[in-house]
Amino acid sequence: MEENRTPLPPPEKHVYTLWEKLALVFALALGTVFSFVWFGKDADYLSREIRFFIPVYALFWGIYAAGFCLFNRERAKRPASVFLLAAAALLFLRYALYRQAETSLLNLLVIPLILMLHAVDCAFDVPAHREGQYIALYLRGWFGAPFLCIGRFFGAVAALFPKGKADEKTKAVRTGILAALPVAAVAAVLLIRADAAMSYYLSSFLSGLSLGGTVTRLIFACIVAVVFYSFYYAMTWKKPETVSAPYQKAIEGLTGITVLAVLLALYGVFAAFQFTYLTGLAGLPEELTYSEYAVQGFGELCAVAGINFTVFSLLHAFTKEHKALFPMLLALLFATALLLISALYRLILYIDAYGLTFKRILSLWFMGFLIIALVLFARKLKKPQLKLIRSLAMALVLWYLALSALNIDAVIAKSVLHEAAKAGALRESDANYLRYQLSADAKKVLLESSMKGEIYYDVEPEDLP
Q: Which has the higher per-residue pLDDT, 425 or 362?
């Protein structure tokens, strides 16, 4: 007996709104800037001259941000979102103030990272008791959103030419144009060959055009447009729902306490060594200087601090209630504070011996952020409703803005000159470093120095970068 089957209804066709169609304009504008301005015929020149490259880079991300804020206009007004957008703008402003090379290059990467934070903050509300979703959503923004809604781009393009609404005359004209195009192309080629004058002028007009290059740029423009339209759509109109249920407490309280007890015992032994050698109660081995002792431990101590923060986060989120959990987590943060103090002391010893460089300034900056992070972790222990990951991200951006506000090369120059003044003379290697390695940001400090003659004895200041 044949079973009666009801045919499934056809899938409902998506009706594109005006905003979804408008996103095409921004996506196509981004593709055009990327292929025909950023990587246009003057691409080599732009790559050599950062003062010309940066305005194009700013134009590209400015168009993106304008579109995203327009499509998320209500949520984009929130203070955190405004702050992140302003932070990206301030990093662009830094290019007009300073020429320090390392930070200038670093900002090219940091700006899109901040803009992705802005997109996630605008698009999603994540509860404090489930804030690990921030990490997943941030990664989705990079590796999912640009590709999840690629089909919507072509659907939006098709929606610009609706079917069934044109009258018979319009349809007839469209059909006639489509039918005439191949015939007209063949006829045009024959006519051009038949008329020498037409062939000459057309050849002259096309001589400056590179058809292959233009086609390649068109292809890349379309790819960029499709990817950014997909991103707009996935972060605005097809967002996944965030989970609001708290994490399941899967770790037994006694297990968590044991983990913390082992770590704290290890840190107790380490603290004894630190107190002995860094305070001078016992001398270092003969083969080891204090500068070597300082530099060898800094990175490892920062890594251990990162491990402690991770352990704190996991145990705080997934461990069942236990009366000893709070004091043990507090003790872990206290041990982390001691580790950071030790790392900072080592770094100061090294800087005191060798002076400041960009890497050492960056290390000091990173230490400052870790101290801010420690305060936020302690606040999370006291106030569980704090959105820790979001707060860390905002603090990181704010602290990076503080770093960007520094005239880094001028600070380095002052440090080198200070060390030279203590030594009573400027070494030739330091003089060469001041002359040729620092940017024009340091020139004012160098010209005002009492050692100006030793720095510029064989070169005019105007000839320096």
A: 362
d(CA 374, CA 67): 37
Residue 410 falls in which region: left (phi positive, over 0), alpha (psi -120 to 50) or beta: alpha
CA torsion sign for 384, 386, 390, 396 is negative
Q: Quickly tell me which residue has 């072509």 as its tokens.
A: 154
Per-residue model confidence (pLDDT) at position 428: 84
Q: What is the CA radius of gyration of the chain?
A: 31
Report domain extents, the chain. Answer: 18-157, 253-400, 410-463
Distance CA 56, CA 39 (A): 10
Could you count the other beta carbons within 10 Å of the beta carbon of residue 375? 12
358 Rama sector, left if φ>0, alpha if ψ -120 to 50, beta otherwise? alpha
So what's the pLDDT on residue 211? Answer: 45
CA nearest neighbour of 278 among 233, 320, 338:
338
3-state secondary structure of 319: strand
- Helix 18-32, helix 50-71: angle, nearest 10: 170
What is the maximum span of the chain, computed from C-alpha positions, in angstroms? 106
Per-residue model confidence (pLDDT) at position 436: 84
Q: Which residues fall within 8 angstroms of residue 17, CB to CB, at 6 or more apart?
A: none
Q: Say how far apart CA 461 and CA 440 lie, in whole Å.
A: 10
- pTM recorded for the entire structure: 0.83
Retrieve residue 194's tokens: 């038949």
Find the length of the chain: 465
User: Among 182-196, 304-318, 366-380, whose mean pLDDT is lowest?
Assistant: 182-196
What is d(CA 394, CA 386) in angstroms, rounded to the nearest whole number?
13
For residues 29 and 19, give the distance between their C-alpha atoms in angstroms, rounded to a whole number.
Answer: 15
Contacts within 8 Å (CB) and 24+ apart, 305-309: 305/336, 305/339, 305/340, 305/343, 305/370, 305/374, 308/263, 308/332, 308/333, 308/335, 308/336, 308/339, 309/336, 309/373, 309/377
Half-sphere exposure of 70 (CA within 13 A, CB side): 16
Rounded CA separation 15/155 (Å): 9
Can you tell me the distance from the alpha carbon of 277 to that of 268, in angstroms, rounded to the nearest whole number?
A: 15
Beta bridge pairs of residue 251: 319
Contacts 24+ apart (CB under 8 A), 277-280: 278/342, 278/345, 278/346
